[in-house]
């Protein structure tokens, strides 16, 4: 099984909505489909969107990376795609997840400040800066500092999995029992 990794920069063709309106709906839709498809294909990576530009990193089995990128390349929601990295990979560098969306956040702002970059323009990143961006994606995935936009809903910070499914179902069952007890009490007394 040959692995590869790929990173590119592109420009969004849609009009960005004001930041205060929350998650860009186009990006939310892209992410929803990406997570589904990439999960099936065993691809990992991340998508940054800011200043109406994209930076995407993908890694996984070569066949699936190429197939996915071919679809992405033909997508009219972006243009001027510039390949930044396209190379074989020996060992996977991400531990889990199918696709992450990392909004332009304080760590990206710190990265831009550090390199004295006036705005988010990944097409102009040096290879070293690309690696730094990939590291940011990797680290935010490990910290779980991610925003889940699976639904077209306002941004929700997805903190680490605080409750295991067992505990969650336990609490749910306890909640149901409390409701039953209250209803039974009201009926009986
Ligand atoms: C910037 C950008 C990034 C995208 N990233 C992915 C991706 O990682 N995986 C994916 O399946 N589709 C991605 N898409 C969407 C694809 O272009 C395409 O719409 C989608 O794969 C079609 O999937 P479907 O045939 O299951 O509807 C992306 C689109 C854009 C504009």
From TrEMBL:
SUPFAM superfamilies: Acylphosphatase/BLUF domain-like (SSF54975)
Superkingdom of source: Bacteria
InterPro entries associated with the record: Acylphosphatase-like_dom_sf, BLUF_domain
Gene3D superfamilies: 3.30.70.100
Keyword Zinc tagged: no
Pfam family, one: BLUF
Keyword entries, A-Z: Membrane, Transmembrane, Transmembrane helix
Transmembrane recorded as keyword: yes
Transmembrane segments: 169-188
Molecular function terms from GO: blue light photoreceptor activity; FAD binding
PROSITE patterns linked: BLUF (PS50925)
Domain BLUF span(s) in chain numbering: 3-100
Record's protein name: BLUF domain protein
Upper classification of the organism: Bacteria, Pseudomonadati, Pseudomonadota, Gammaproteobacteria, Pseudomonadales
């Amino acid at each position: 099984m040959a692995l590869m990794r790929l990173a590119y920069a592109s420009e969004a063709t849609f009009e960005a909505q004001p930041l205060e309106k929350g998650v860009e709906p186009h990006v939310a839709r892209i992410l929803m489909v990406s997570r589904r498809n990439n999960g099936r294909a065993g691809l990992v990576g991340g998508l940054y969107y800011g200043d109406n530009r994209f930076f995407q990193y993908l890694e996984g089995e070569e066949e699936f990376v190429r197939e996915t990128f071919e679809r992405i390349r033909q997508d009219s929601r972006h243009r001027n795609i510039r390949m930044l990295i396209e190379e074989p990979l020996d060992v996977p560098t991400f531990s889990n997840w199918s696709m992450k969306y990392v909004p332009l956040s304080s760590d990206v702002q710190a990265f831009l400040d550090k390199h004295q970059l006036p705005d988010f323009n990944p097409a102009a990143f040096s290879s070293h800066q690309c690696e730094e961006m990939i590291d940011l994606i990797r680290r935010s995935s490990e910290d779980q500092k991610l925003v889940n936009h699976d639904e077209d809903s306002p941004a929700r910070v997805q903190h680490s999995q605080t409750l295991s499914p067992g505990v969650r179902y336990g609490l749910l069952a306890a909640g149901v029992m409390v409701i039953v007890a209250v209803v039974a009490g009201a009926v009986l007394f």
